[in-house]
Amino acid sequence: MGNQQSSAVQQCLEQAIGKDHVAFKNTPLYQISHVKPYNLGVPVTPAAVTYPKTADEVSAIVKCAVDNSLKVQPRCGGHSYANYGIGGQDNTIVVDMKNFQQFSMDKSTWQATIGGGTLLRDVTERLHDNGKRAIAHGTCPQVGIGGHATIGGLGPTSRMWGSTLDHVEEVEVVLANSTVVRASEKQNQDIFFATKGAAAGFGIVTEFKMRTQAEPGEAVLYSYNFHGGSSASKAEAFKQWQKLISDPALSRKFASQYILTEQLGAIITGTFFGSQAEFDSLNITSRLPTGSALESIELKDWLGVVGHWSEDIALEIVGGIPSNFYAKSLSYTEKDIIPDETIDKLFKYIDEADKGGALWFIIWDLEGGAINDVAPDATAYGHRDALFYHQAYAVNLFGKVNDKTRNFLNGLNNVVLDALPDHNQGAYAGYVDPALGENSASLYWGGNVERLERIKAEVDPLDVFHNPQSVRPAKK
């Protein structure tokens, strides 16, 4: 960005929201205090980081960007795996949403109004304090609702209630032409469709109106630990877990993960949303390997249940701490059950592959249920046939993730894909992967890409809301 343009942008933004609410490249401690990259392996220097307080101020920021031919991206929790919340590339104007904390509850409809900058931990507490209500969402308390509810939002209660974005009934959104509009199934339907799965390419959501659920009265937190053991024994445990979670009769109250780490071995863990007696009646122990140690605890305190999720083994490794990391994901449908011989090969590969010295872990996460009740073309989120995902992570505590580590994670996906030639490969946009390249749109949004590109051409033809993998306008 040239000095003349830089000066014009600075003057425009300072007039729009005030000098105290914007930081530039020459601001002291710019990277540490304002840019705050989540993935230290993806260096990004935004043109400016702004801190608006109203939708009109967001609108003014967008106008400054358009007038100076710059891109815009919103940041809520800032947990993008490739730093897309700060643009994913240099010279983006970042709109930090931390001031959008409005909240109210309509106790006649139990519809909550939630500001676009609210973190999940605050969403949980505010819903609890206003009628003991809840929505489905993920387990990391530092994640922001602004990204979570516009990408998907998958979590332990999703099999019962759907994804986070399935709770969204209306949004207030700032568009590329600087207008502030309301979108729902009754007005601005195309914009509403796009924001429910691909919002980063279409606008900035400043407010959500969301349906809520009554908190579950009780829940059982369980884990089966397989400490040590051979790769063959861990593979056998996975086979039995996969058989369990692919049972079409499995209760939607049952959430489950298979977690594999080098340090702690394999763990099957999750939550059952019911009583201990109900959980025991499922006789899960008989459907998992003998010799596994079951630990379970019944809780009747909803905040305690959600708080326990944040103590998850995987979150303890990464959590909200910036680091150098790389991640890959893959979706599996009911047609993509991994054959036993491939599971053996997969776990042997994991055991023997060169990880490049990184700390690594893999999570296979059960989905399905209510998430899949929604038609794949009803929202931009298109993975309505996903039964489970895997997420593979590698963290380097002492420097950038090297090629050996990246090859390890890529090879993990390839073992599965080679064995499932008809697999309809899909990646969750919440686990964004810059290595997907030009094919990322179809992998993130499936059959919804063409409609999204048409909407993009109508509402943001200049591609103002842009990151390296956001939806592009349809070509004329």
Strand order of the largest sheet: 15-12-14-13-17-18-16
Could you tell me the radius of gyration in angstroms?
A: 22 Å
What percent of the residues sit in helical stretches (DSSP H or I)? 25-40%
Structural class: alpha+beta
Largest sheet: 7 strands, antiparallel
CATH class of the domain at 219-431: Alpha Beta
- CATH domain fold name of the domain at 219-431: Vanillyl-alcohol Oxidase, Chain A, domain 3
The rough form would be described as globular
Total count of strands: 18
CATH architecture of the domain at 219-431: 3-Layer(aba) Sandwich
Number of distinct helices: 15
Low-confidence stretches: none
The N- and C-terminal alpha carbons lie at a distance of: 29 Å
Determine the strand fraction and express it as a percent band: 15-25%
Mean pLDDT over all positions: 93
Helices and strands in order:
Blueprint: H1 3-17, E1 22-24, H2 30-35, E2 48-50, H3 55-67, E3 71-75, E4 92-96, E5 103-106, E6 111-115, H4 120-129, E7 133-134, H5 145-151, H6 158-161, E8 168-174, E9 180-184, H7 189-198, E10 204-211, E11 213-214, E12 219-226, H8 231-245, E13 254-261, E14 265-272, H9 276-281, E15 293-299, H10 302-309, H11 313-317, E16 324-333, H12 340-352, E17 359-366, E18 386-396, H13 403-419, H14 440-445, H15 449-459
Parallel strand pairs: 2-4, 3-4
Antiparallel strand pairs: 1-2, 5-6, 6-10, 7-11, 8-9, 8-10, 12-14, 12-15, 13-14, 13-17, 16-18, 17-18
Helix pairs in contact: 1-3, 8-12, 12-13
